[in-house]
Design brief:
Blueprint lengths: L8 H8 L3 H5 L5 H12 L4 E4 L7 H6 L4 E5 L2 H9 L6 E5 L11 E6 L10 H14 E12 L11 E8 L2 E10 L4 E10 L2 E10 L3 H10 L2 E7 L13 E8 L3
Parallel strand pairs: 1-2, 1-4, 2-3, 4-5
Antiparallel strand pairs: 5-11, 6-7, 7-8, 8-9, 10-11
Amino acid sequence: MNEFRNWTSAAYGDARAGAYDRQVAGRADEHLAVELLSSLAQAGPALELGVGTGRLAIPLAESGTAVHGLDSSERMLDVLRAAPGGERVTALHGDMAAFDLPGRYRLVWVAFNSFFLLDSAGAQQDCFGTVARHLTPGGRFVIEAFVPAPEQFSATPALRVKDFSEGGMLLQASRHSDRDQTVESLDLEVTSGGFELYPTRIRYSWPAELDAMAGKAGLELEDRWETWSRQGFSADSRAHVSVYRRADG
C-alpha cells in the first residue's frame, strides 16, 4: 500500500474532509457526548483535539461553552468554519501531539478514536504531556476510543464491506502489525459519481497503556465508562470514555 509511505493525520483529514460528515452520519450518541462534555466544561474554555468538521464542538459551543477546536487538516477546518454554527468555534491549526496555545482549558477532549491517529507510542505520550500543560488546575482530559480485542484484527490482509446502500458502498482493506500495534486501512467508497480512496493509519492502545501515559504526564484517571451515557465499564467493554484529571487540582 504505497498510500502509507507519506501518511500523516493531516493527509487523513484533507482526504476525508468532503466526505466525513456523510460517512459518520447517524451516530445516535452525539447528544449524549455533548451533555457529558458540557457537564465537565461548564462555561469553559474547552478544547477539542481532532475537531474535524465540528460534530461535537459546534453543539457544545451552542450550549454556552467557549470552545476551541484544533486539527492538523486545514481542509477539515474549512468545513468546520463553513458549517452552520461553525463561527461559534475558534478553529486552530496544529498537531495534537505538539501544540502550544496561550490559553488554559477546563476541558480538553478527543473523540471517535482520533487519539489513535497519533501513530506511535511516543506521539501519544507527547499528546498527554502537551494536554497536561494546557489544563487549568483540576482540568480534565477526555478520550473516547475502542478497546482493542485480539479477534478484531486479522493476521493477514483482510477485506470487508463497511456500508452498502442504494447510494453506493464502502469497502475496507486492512493489515495489522501486532508488534507495532498499528492498523493500516484503505477505504474505497464507490458511488454513482465514481470512487474515492481514503488511507488511514492508527496506533491503538489499551486503556491500561493510556492510564500509564496519563500518569507520566501528571494526570490521574477519574472516571471510565463504556459509553457517553456513563454506562459502566467492564472487562467485556469494547469501547471506553475515560476522564483524566490534572493531579494538582
